[in-house]
Amino acid sequence: MEEREEIPQDSNGLFPLAAKNPETRAMRFHKEKPVIFLTSRVHPGETPGSFVLNGFLDLLTDIKSEQGRLLRKHFVFKVIPILNPDGCSRGYYRLDTAAYNLNRFYLNPSK
Q1: Average pLDDT for 65-86
Q2: Are residues 62 and 76 in the same domain?
Q3: Is 109 within the bounds of a domain?
Q4: Are residues 47 and 72 in the same domain?
């Protein structure tokens, strides 16, 4: 768990806290761990997804939880809590601000 990966020089400010503190400049990363990618709220109206994700993050970050410790030890978690923030902020139920259903663009995404 002490293996470190250097922050890429071309990260363009993606790691602002690490850039300010030289002691944390290297990120802790264990390359053999499988990655679990979690998303929530593709459709803004899926508010229960936010509650489920919050509960999971509470478990994952609870320092007293043995389950959370084991999950952190064996996996890397990448989380996008709200995949459609523009739709959520405008109160839409299913679409983003361009009137697209984001579930239909996984195979051919555009910038």
Answers
A1: 90
A2: yes
A3: no
A4: yes
